[in-house]
Amino acid sequence: MMKKCRVLYDFSGETDNGELTIYENEVLQIIRQDVGEGWWEAENPSGQRGLVPEAYVEQMVEENQGSKPITTQQSTVSQDDEWDDDEWDERASQSSYDAQQQDSGLNGNNYGLSAPNRQFKQRNSEASARSGTVKKNFASRFSVFAKTGGEAYLLGGGPKKGASPDGTIRIIEAEDGPRWEETVGKYTCEIKNPKKESKLKGIKSFIAYQVTPSNTGIRVSRRYKHFDWLYERLAEKFTLVIVPPLPDKQVTGRYEEAFIEKRMDQLQRWMNRMTAHPVIGPSDVMIHFTSCTDEKLWKQGKRKAEKDEFLGAAFYQNIEPPANNLDVATIERQHDTFTRFTKSFDSSVAVIQQVIHDYSKKHLGPFKREYQKIGNSFTELATTFNLDNRPNPEGKDDPPQESVQLTEALNFTGKTYEEIGELFYQQPKYDLHPFEDFLKEYGGMMSCFPDMIHFHKHTVQTVKECQKQREEQKMDFEEAEAVKKRADVISYAMMAEVNHFHRERVEDFKWIMQVYLKEQIKFYKSLTIKLEEALQKYDELDR
Amino acid sequence: MMKKCRVLYDFSGETDNGELTIYENEVLQIIRQDVGEGWWEAENPSGQRGLVPEAYVEQMVEENQGSKPITTQQSTVSQDDEWDDDEWDERASQSSYDAQQQDSGLNGNNYGLSAPNRQFKQRNSEASARSGTVKKNFASRFSVFAKTGGEAYLLGGGPKKGASPDGTIRIIEAEDGPRWEETVGKYTCEIKNPKKESKLKGIKSFIAYQVTPSNTGIRVSRRYKHFDWLYERLAEKFTLVIVPPLPDKQVTGRYEEAFIEKRMDQLQRWMNRMTAHPVIGPSDVMIHFTSCTDEKLWKQGKRKAEKDEFLGAAFYQNIEPPANNLDVATIERQHDTFTRFTKSFDSSVAVIQQVIHDYSKKHLGPFKREYQKIGNSFTELATTFNLDNRPNPEGKDDPPQESVQLTEALNFTGKTYEEIGELFYQQPKYDLHPFEDFLKEYGGMMSCFPDMIHFHKHTVQTVKECQKQREEQKMDFEEAEAVKKRADVISYAMMAEVNHFHRERVEDFKWIMQVYLKEQIKFYKSLTIKLEEALQKYDELDR
């Protein structure tokens, strides 16, 4: 049965990009829902096909009485309820949610960076809208820090809390600058076998993933909400460390196989990045997440992590930087360089994203149609050539053998171009979509930059302020030196993290370019093979 | 110096097809004039580029005083004069030209066929507008025949004129139906070495082609106007034989190398078709055209050919058909089959032409831009990555080696996609334009169909009319039998010609499909190679 949807809002599609213009209340036939990136392929009542934004339409369920939106078709436990109760069972009270919404406003401040492109901004606010617990969002995290623990740490070291469960974190001097010391026991986590499980007599269902860390080899079962919890812990604890948000949580098609596979893949990439980080990987909370199998211990560990005092500014108390003092001019230059890099990176990633997005949509619409039009025109010509029925002495009207063979070859060519059209349609799955996903992941990482930069800038300013005060005899030498020492810790941490980021970036972009180009090569080779098969049909006519 | 042109008429371009919207009096920069198919690539004052129809613009010549249209820049002997005097020195008086213009009106009658597509119609009328001598155009030729010689031949055999210089033309029964008998001495003609020559002290110049027939091996020199003369002789003589019009004569860029090469190529294909035809190839006028080297003999032969009496209906007096009488029902069925074929062929060729035309324009604009956009986005990313200058212990800010290499690889990828864009731009030259030229050639052949069908239909109707009269005792048996015998000659000729056409069609379409597919394969292989080179840069980073 053909699925249908009703148009909720007018949408003026760019034909050039394969989009369909749709009008409120129009009923469309859904051709494909796994197009990705928030698009469906649909056909309007005039038979035109194209891409429509899924947010602009609402799927209907066919009934004998007619079509109704699918949501009204649910049991009394609506998808929304289930979603809240199941995935958000640790959601905080509405008031804290409101407070957090206010915090989100701070997100608009992008710390002198160029305006983040819409997609990232959206992600960012999605990420904060999503964090149901009382944790602060990115922007507020640093503001709060500056107001309380951050300045306190810099100026006076903050309250001494003794040894952190994570121990001392060392920064060493390496060839390419300061680095986080790699501790022994680097490990990875394999995420696999997503299983739909349910509780409350099947009313609530969720996906459980099997997580197997390489250091223990013992698998644990984790749900998306557990990953979300882990993300919140890491983000609040590791100031100045890039903790990218989790992959988007989508409601639509949450239990569809393709979606589950994709989300698992994205969680895997997120997890790889976290376990590979020299500071995050060996941290207590990560070890707990990846190794705890006992339900009681799990809850204990959770509570302990939530009460961790070595977070935000306090996290720096356990960092041991290299012995050399940093000079302020160098720090400032480094700061500016990185700021320039992030601005430029932000804009060039936005450009690639746009180009890839458009190119991908062209594959789904115009390119496919172009090749199918070519195919159809050959098929039509073959149909014409079938009308070659010359009379022969036997009185039969069959066309001569060569004519029949040519017609067959043309038909084959027609089919070939139809298939090439389909290959174009399928291709983005293999090259452009992975690239888009990859860039989204980087978008998540980039959303951490403004806070890092703001925080570090604040540090540098504080140091300069103290120096000034010392020169004016308002602060004594020892005190100013102590501030500078603590600021060095922060600058070293920033440099180590930037260094870590760059090393990852080089590896990651090398990898994605290889993936992309390999798939592009495969694609053009497959076209070549198809066309060679078609050519062969004509070459055979010579024999 | 950048060439410019002034817009003569508003033109609303389809962006989708890479066209540029232009406005009267706007001055454009000409980017490329060898795009083909009547298009130039130009840039408007806002810096947008796209295709513009060359007929809508007028090229300007830069002078110190400013820009002037190029035509005002010519010597007192304007291009038009030269054209008329040189190429049209056998042009008839204005009155006969007018008469011929009236004849053209008959072209509108398409004999019950579907409306020929615009392009063919245009060709047809171009062809008739072009025939400067007193010869009839296609449509009028048959109408005249029906009014005079045709009916006379059918009903009474027409005036006996004795043996034709071309001798007897036999139609034989072959496996695939009636065929023109192939006489010995089949030959080809090689056309090459186009040379610009001039007369009247260089005021008039023209292109002379070297024509070397394979049967004599002695080369003769012929100009376009000689080919045109030959075409007129063949078209008026060989009723019911497909004599396609010559390739278009273009004024613009008449002496440009690319144009001359292309026209020579088209003349070559036209000539091949004519010499290969079992009736046309061995004809007196063809032998004269291909072998006469002496100027005096050339003029004598010309006059003789122009006075040939065995043309139109009289041509049938020298045809010897197979012994078997044809039955009217079979003839009618054959007639209808061919009519159906031509209608269908007409429309499927029009479809392919449109598809190829659009596809070709997309290569020149959107496709090229798409790949260059991809290239630019990689290049831009490389520029960003150049900003990776982490401090290292030596105090240098150079990025580490891996980072530099990645940036280089990205730059290379950017360049690769730029080049791929350029390959897309160039590609139509190798596959789509030859295909378009080929279809145009077939368009010319197809323009002969309506007259053939009309003529044959007239014959069949006359036969049926005579049979009716005989049944009504208004015509005696012998007379009716004699009409039927002469009608059989015409039907056999039609069948032989249709058969010949189909055999050529099979060969020709096989050939063009091979050309097309081979070039397509080459193209996709070249993309693969380019991408493999780009991929290698990343693979090298692993070492």
From TrEMBL, chains A, B:
CDD domains, A to Z: BAR_SNX9_like, PX_SNX9_18_like
Ranges for domain PX: 187-297
This protein's GO CC annotations: cytoplasmic vesicle membrane
Positions with biased composition (Polar residues): 63-78, 105-119
Low complexity bias locations: 93-104
Matches recorded under SMART domains: PX (SM00312), SH3 (SM00326)
GO molecular function terms attached to this record: phosphatidylinositol binding
Source superkingdom: Eukaryota
Region annotation Disordered: where it falls in the sequence: 63-132
Protein name: Sorting nexin
SH3 domain: residues covered: 1-62
Species: Strongylocentrotus purpuratus (Purple sea urchin)
Subcellular location: Cytoplasmic vesicle membrane
GO biological process, one term: mitotic cell cycle
Xref: Gene3D superfamilies: Arfaptin homology (AH) domain/BAR domain, Phox-like domain, SH3 Domains
